[in-house]
Specification:
Layout: H1 2-19, E1 23-28, H2 40-50, E2 63-64, H3 74-80, E3 93-99, E4 109-113, H4 120-127, H5 141-153, E5 158-165, H6 182-191, E6 199-208, E7 211-221, E8 245-247, E9 259-261, E10 266-272, E11 280-288, E12 296-301, E13 304-307, E14 313-321, E15 331-337, H7 344-383
Parallel strand pairs: 1-3, 1-5, 9-15
Antiparallel strand pairs: 2-6, 3-4, 5-7, 6-7, 8-10, 10-13, 11-12, 11-14, 14-15
Helix pairs in contact: 5-6
């Protein structure tokens, strides 16, 4: 029972790490707070946390306001400690949205999908606000609710939300001169409902000349949220790219019809279109019905791998991805090793036996011919009253 609970706990931890692979960023463009930390300094810390390249030494002016031990999201905790895994991978959806005055989030926003040719670093640099100092207010709740509604229409239920602002609470609530529509009010109300509500993970703070800047990281799960999906936004998110590993050697073998190979060494080759540079692959070689043999697993970069000392028989070969942020469908084939193995000695014995038998037969045939000739010569000698003399010394009589 304890073992089962441990396995379940490990599964939940792994799921927490990899389930939320979408990241969205709010940047406050109001004319308040520490401007420098809204610009490059703010962009850089977001980039490093998302890509798991964060270290305290790179961002000494940003202080974590939370006790590191109270952070329940293990991957975020590990990233803050200088480790962990990136929050995104290939096919993750990312976005950056400006917040400030009413409906600012509807005017300046960008969404995209991560791929080997479109990384998060480039996306952030390209779409980060050029002017972070232009609005009079900071409205947070409405953009949060709108984003959740939009993402629900895109069937995205789990994501991280980074909010870079000098405010930690919404300063655009009713009573500040902003007239919210009924739709706005309903979105805001529904966003806070559901069995799984948005959860604040942690907050960083930077101060310059007595002015604050906060970076707050949220985890959002919309699976139990009743918010109504927002459609017809005009936003187009590129479709998911499907990565497929294809074999270039021993392709197409199956257990009933394996590819026969007359050597106990094989070179497995494969190809994956648009795969990330230096992607790692896992090669698993499993015996099929071969006693005293176990599956072998190797890792490699590149597009080929040599496997040696395979016993005669059938082997199933699977090539899959081994990189944590690269997913692709695997490729499988079956080969049958038929290298001759220990039978070579029997073949030598058979050849030797055949050669010896042939020689014996030839020798026996020659001996029989000689005996027959001698017998015939003996009979002729008796009939003529003389004997056959084959001595060369008597050649002078002839």
């Amino acid at each position: 029972m304890k073992r089962l609970l441990c396995i379940l706990l490990l599964f939940l931890v792994a799921f927490e790490i990899y389930a939320q692979e979408n990241v969205f960023v709010f940047v406050d463009v109001s004319i308040s707070g520490a401007k420098r930390f809204k610009e490059a300094a703010g962009r850089n810390i977001i980039n490093d946390i998302v890509l798991a390249t964060y270290t305290n030494s790179k961002h000494p002016e940003w202080k974590l306001l939370d006790n590191i031990n109270t952070i329940t999201y293990n991957n975020i905790k590990q990233i803050i400690n200088g480790g962990g895994n990136a929050l995104i991978s290939n096919n993750s959806v990312v976005g950056i949205i400006e917040i400030g005055d009413y409906n600012r989030h509807l005017k300046n926003r960008a969404f995209d999908r991560i791929s080997p040719t479109n990384n998060f670093d480039d996306f952030l640099k390209t779409n980060y606000p050029g002017n972070v100092w232009k609005d009079q207010k900071t409205i947070i709740d409405l953009p949060m609710a709108w984003l959740a509604s939009f993402l629900k229409s895109e069937n995205i239920s789990n994501y991280y939300l980074f909010v870079l602002s000098d405010e930690q609470t919404d300063k655009g609530k009713p009573g500040t001169g902003i007239q919210y529509t009924e739709t706005d009010k309903r979105l805001i109300a529904d966003y806070g409902k559901g069995s799984k509500r948005p959860e604040k993970i942690c907050t960083f703070n930077a101060i310059e000349n007595g002015k604050d800047m906060f970076l707050t990281i949220w985890s959002v799960d919309l699976s139990g949220n009743p918010i109504t999906p927002t459609t017809n936004t005009g936003i187009v998110i590129p479709p998911s790219e499907v990565y497929k590993i294809e074999l270039t050697t021993f392709k197409g073998g199956t257990s009933p019809k394996p590819i026969v190979h007359n050597d106990n060494k094989i070179t497995i080759g494969w190809f994956c279109k648009n795969a990330p540079k230096n992607a790692q692959y896992k090669i698993r070689v499993s015996p099929i019905g071969i006693s005293d043999e176990k599956a072998q697993t190797y890792t490699a970069t590149g597009n080929s791998y040599n496997v040696s000392n395979l016993t005669n028989g059938k082997w199933k070969i699977t090539v899959s991805t081994s990189s944590p942020n690269f997913e692709a469908s695997s490729a499988t084939t079956t080969v049958e090793i038929n290298s001759g193995g220990s039978y070579w000695f029997l073949w030598l014995l058979l050849i030797a036996a055949l050669g010896g038998g042939g020689y014996w037969y030839w020798k026996k045939t020659q001996d029989d011919k000689i005996k027959k000739l001698n017998s015939m010569s003996h009979n002729d000698s008796f009939s003529n009253g003389s004997t056959l003399n084959t001595n060369s010394d008597n050649s002078e009589y002839f």
